[in-house]
């Protein structure tokens, strides 16, 4: 069971995350915990929840990075500095190393849609899969002693008692900026595949050989105030495009 | 990586036990001697203590039997299967020596083979992880095997000196294996020092095209499972000192003690067992430090997301 599917699945369900849009509000993080603590498998426990050293299992976390362009030592010194909010959860890799190291068969990748899951009743909590994952997508639940990970909300996406628009992962449904998208990355005609193609979607740590299904859309190039300046006041003076009634008003006003 | 005590004790103890059992399988000690019977019991004891210790870090140890099922893909599963399979010839071999006073070649050799393969599987659990570059090298199983051999030969020397047989022969084996093991470790450490990570914050975020990537804010201000398990850090100056202690206690001291007894101690005298025991004690302590460093110095690729 811990062997990967012999044939790569035709359907590759996954997420596309737009780093140009994410504002780092952590709504997806909170809704993920909210949904999954009552959903698939054991609850997501917290240790010392009201104390000084609170910690717990989360399946989605947002890191915030600053990027120093070439030639600078400090942010803003050279080029255009950027702050990028970076949501990170399981990438449902095609060559998932977390699956093949599992000694019990608890970790598996579904042949039908490519989702990587943990069968918690088989998990012994050895933690080796978390060691094998380069992305930190797996966290041990210290109360249940089993490994937790993103299920791509497998208990939402196929749930026919939900309205159509709710049959997406909780993080996608809740994102107020529409930075998260869910779909079939195995189908080149799907909305998510088109976004990846148009924006040059990237794989995280391709050198690890994991072939992640989830893709990240890099931030778009900046437009500076200076470059927008030329289109400013001069453009406001141009009435060449006016037609009909507005063209008549324009001509009349010119005459006064 | 977090140096968990249960895993350090497991690899050290089972390494010594498998090493001793490996040499016992070749009938190097007199099967009629009491010391040899004791050696068999100690070998099985060290292996059992190690294996039991390894289950202590599990979240659900009552399901540990399930770990025997995935030997086709998982080195951890292979290790579990081989540990149990090799118990059969090891126990048979011990039975023949303890109750019948004779060495059985088929059981002995099968046991020795089982020992070597099990230690190899243990090492491959670490060496197979691409995420921890320090471990991801054939030098890791080479060092584990050589360390198990050196410790086993030293234990065999101790029991030989107690009346089990020719301590000179096993001492020479121990000296050769000590040099081999610490030589391998030296090359392993040189490789570690020279490593420049292929995974960086730039490849981890895919934002390298925009410039140099630096963590501004972690997801949470407190520690989490990932930072505790994989974000262990040790000051480089301390690592250097601890490595010197490991090399000295685990390599230098036992080498000098064994060489001194081989050159000066009288066969059958008290010098041999005392020196062999002191060498063993120093070696075991040195090995615990070495194994602690094996984990503490290894960096995991997930720390690219945590600025460590």
Provide a compact summary of the structure.
The complex is a heterodimer of chains A (256) and B (308). In chain A, the strands form 5 sheets. In chain A, strands 10-1-11 form a 3-stranded mixed beta sheet. Chain A has a two-stranded antiparallel sheet with strand order 2-3. A two-stranded antiparallel sheet of chain A has the order 4-5.
Can you give a write-up of this model?
- The complex is a heterodimer of chains A (256) and B (308).
- Chain A has 9 helices and 11 strands.
- The radius of gyration of chain A is 24 Å and the shape is elongated.
- Chain A has one domain (13-223): Alpha-Beta Plaits, CATH 3.30.70.
- Chain A starts with 12 loop residues before the first strand and ends with a helix.
- The mean pLDDT of chain A is 91.
- Chain A is α+β, with helices and mostly antiparallel strands and 256 residues long.
- In chain A, strand 6 and strand 7 form a beta hairpin.
- The model of chain B has no long low-confidence stretch (mean pLDDT 93).
- With 308 residues, chain B is mainly alpha-helical.
- In chain B, helix 1 (5-25) packs antiparallel against helix 2 (34-54), helix 1 (5-25) packs antiparallel against helix 4 (105-127) and helix 3 runs antiparallel to helix 4.
- Chain B has a single domain (5-55, 66-198, 215-305), classed as Up-down Bundle (Formate dehydrogenase/DMSO reductase fold).
- Classes of the chains: A alpha+beta (256), B mainly alpha (308).
- Strand 4 of chain A pairs antiparallel with strand 1 (212-217) of chain B, so a sheet runs across the interface.
Characteristics:
heterodimer; A: 256 residues; alpha+beta; Alpha-Beta Plaits; three-stranded mixed beta sheet; two-stranded antiparallel ribbon; 23% helix; B: 308 residues; mainly alpha; Formate dehydrogenase/DMSO reductase fold; 2% strand
């Amino acid at each position: 069971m811990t062997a990967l599917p012999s044939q790569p699945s035709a359907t590759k369900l996954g997420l596309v995350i737009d780093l140009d849009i994410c504002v780092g509000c952590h709504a997806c993080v909170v809704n993920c915990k909210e949904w999954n603590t009552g959903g698939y498998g054991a609850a997501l426990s917290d240790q010392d929840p009201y104390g000084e050293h609170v910690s717990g299992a989360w399946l989605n976390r947002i890191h915030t990075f600053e990027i120093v362009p070439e030639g600078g030592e400090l942010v803003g010194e050279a080029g255009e500095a950027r702050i990028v909010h970076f949501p990170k959860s399981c990438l449902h890799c095609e060559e998932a190393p977390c699956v093949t190291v599992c000694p019990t068969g608890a970790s598996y990748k579904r042949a039908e849609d490519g989702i990587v899951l943990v069968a918690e009743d088989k998990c012994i909590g050895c933690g080796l899969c978390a060691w094998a994952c380069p992305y930190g997508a797996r966290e041990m639940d210290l109360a249940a002693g089993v490994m937790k990970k993103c299920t791509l909300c497998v208990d939402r996406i196929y749930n026919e008692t939900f309205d159509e628009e709710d049959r997406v992962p909780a993080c996608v449904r809740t994102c107020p900026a529409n930075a998260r998208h869910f779909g079939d990355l195995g189908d080149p005609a799907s909305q998510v595949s088109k976004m990846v193609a148009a924006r040059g979607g990237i794989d995280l740590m391709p050198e690890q050989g994991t072939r992640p299904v989830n893709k990240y859309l890099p931030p778009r190039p900046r437009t500076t105030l200076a470059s927008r300046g030329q289109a400013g006041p001069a453009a406001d003076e141009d009435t060449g495009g006016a037609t009909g009634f507005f063209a008549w008003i324009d001509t009349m006003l010119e005459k006064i | 990586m977090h140096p968990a005590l249960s895993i350090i004790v497991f690899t050290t103890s089972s390494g010594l036990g498998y090493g001793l059992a490996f040499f016992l399988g070749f009938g190097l000690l007199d099967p009629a001697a009491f010391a040899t019977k004791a050696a068999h019991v100690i070998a099985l004891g060290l292996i059992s203590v190690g294996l039991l210790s390894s289950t202590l870090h599990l979240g659900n140890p009552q399901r540990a039997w399930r770990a025997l099922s995935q030997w086709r893909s998982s080195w951890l599963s292979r290790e579990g299967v081989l540990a149990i399979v090799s118990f059969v010839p090891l126990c048979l071999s011990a039975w023949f020596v303890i109750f019948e006073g004779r060495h059985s070649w088929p059981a002995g050799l099968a046991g020795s083979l089982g020992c070597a393969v099990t230690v190899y599987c243990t090492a491959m659990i670490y060496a197979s992880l691409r995420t921890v570059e320090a471990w991801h090298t054939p030098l890791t199983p080479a060092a584990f095997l050589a360390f198990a051999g050196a410790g086993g030969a030293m234990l065999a020397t101790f029991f030989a000196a107690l009346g089990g047989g020719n301590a000179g022969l096993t001492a020479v084996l121990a000296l050769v294996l000590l040099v081999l093991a610490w030589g391998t470790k030296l090359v392993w450490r040189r490789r570690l020092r020279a490593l420049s990570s292929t995974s960086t914050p730039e490849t981890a975020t895919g934002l390298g095209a925009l410039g140099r990537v630096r963590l501004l804010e972690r997801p949470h201000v407190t520690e989490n499972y990932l930072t505790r398990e994989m974000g262990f850090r040790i000051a480089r100056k301390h690592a250097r000192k601890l490595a010197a202690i490991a090399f000295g206690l685990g390599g230098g001291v036992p080498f000098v003690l064994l060489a001194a007894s081989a050159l000066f101690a009288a066969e059958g005298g008290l010098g041999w067992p005392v020196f062999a025991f002191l060498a063993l004690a120093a070696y075991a302590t040195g090995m615990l430090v070495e194994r602690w460093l094996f984990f503490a110095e290894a960096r995991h690729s997930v720390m690219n997301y945590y600025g460590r």
